[in-house]
Amino acid sequence: xxxxxxxxxxxxxxxxxxxxxxxxxxxxxxxxxxxxxxxxxxxxxxxxxxxxxxxxxxxxxxxxxxxxxxxxxxxxxxxxxxxxxxxxxxxxxxxxxxxxxxxxxxxxxxxxxxxxxxxxxxxxxxxxxxxxxxxxxxxxxxxxxxxxxxxxxxxxxxxxxxxxxxxxxxxxxxxxxxxxxxxxxxxxxxxxxxxxxxxxxxxxxxxxxxxxxxxxxxxxxxxxxxxxxxxxxxxxxxxxxxxxxxxxxxxxxxxxxxxxxxxxxxxxxxxxxxxxxxxxxxxxxxxxxxxxxxxxxxxxxxxxxxxxxxxxxxxxxxxxxxxxxxxxxxxxxxxxxxxxxxxxxxxxxxxxxxxxxxxxxxxxxxxxxxxxxxxxxxxxxxxxxxxxxxxxxxxxxxxxxxxxxxxxxxxxxxxxxxxxxxxxxxxxxxxxxxxxxxxxxxxxxxxxxxxxxxxxxxxxxxxxxxxxxxxxxxxxxxxxxxxxxx
Length: 486
Ligand SMILES: [Zn+2]
Known about the structure:
The protein is 23% helix and 24% strand. By secondary structure, it is α/β, with parallel strands linked by helices. This is Succinylglutamate desuccinylase / Aspartoacylase family protein.
């Protein structure tokens, strides 16, 4: 039986040295984060539309530094040199099509929070084989591009799939398993680990990560991740897929968008080991899971009873992100530079190609939206050379380089005249806000041509509520006032 501290002494010594340097090494990254003394800003966030950002217009010639970062070096040298992960166990191969017990959290051999010195362990030296696999793993397979896979090389040996070291487990090639991630914020005895579904393909390829329910009330993404991951066959897969259907488990259990401290987790990435609860959860997820990804699709829905046409939110100023969006079939793309603290922003900054996938509204399971999401993820995996399904591509959806929100000017009850996906023209009435006391009826008109890519469902609104999200297809990018990221 493997013991919790089955680690080799040399490595531990190096790790302890790295840990001692850790806080110094990461401080430049923290210093870029906004000061957050008491969380007042976060609480204020909860009360507004939550995600308004000023977005840069798209520009076709991005600055050089945008191109420089590659997936091969996900974290800059300024980022904390986290100890290389070592597996304490080989993950059991589970047929994900079967129902199986929920994963159990494996014992952690060591972590940055745990500075226990070596003698306490009484550990046996780690067998060198595991270490060797881990080192090889970090060097090679994730860099293999689909293009390279497509051309059979005669002279060079074919790349082979290697083990994936994740969450203290070794996932062998050609196997699927369920691991558990726990951010370590709860009483250890009451901690409920978050399931992580992992498929390490028998063939080499990129690592795609799928995250759902970072906002605990956004249910469509949970089902999109489940259907996508459970349909994969590890023997056929080229690369790895890591799916976390429910990232914000506490929020999910309470039907809430937020964490137990009322913070929005998607404003705290890449996190801070010594920060607020949200900072710590974000840091744990980012460093234990996300940094293993080459590509990330973070799945969301509209917030505050708004619904979204299935769409990607992507920073089209980044060429690698723009290229990535072309793999999603029948999915509109909305250009959005993203806000500081969002998972996709932090991932892109760390060299991981990342987009947000929006589908539908919160607190609902919407079959049409789920199907659209699953279809797009399958087409993405085929485009990336990970699966082969004779995928039939649909008509390409437009890219909305410019989008804007139309807000209610009056309080009352909103009744919409348009539906999600409708094309609207300047002056067209989108809906009315009706005052139930005075009987006043205030029309909301489209200020420009475009398509309804997001909208509020009929509800009581106050003046200023973002009611309609209009996407405009234009050749000339226009400076936009704001965006709502959900
Ligand atoms: Zn969300």
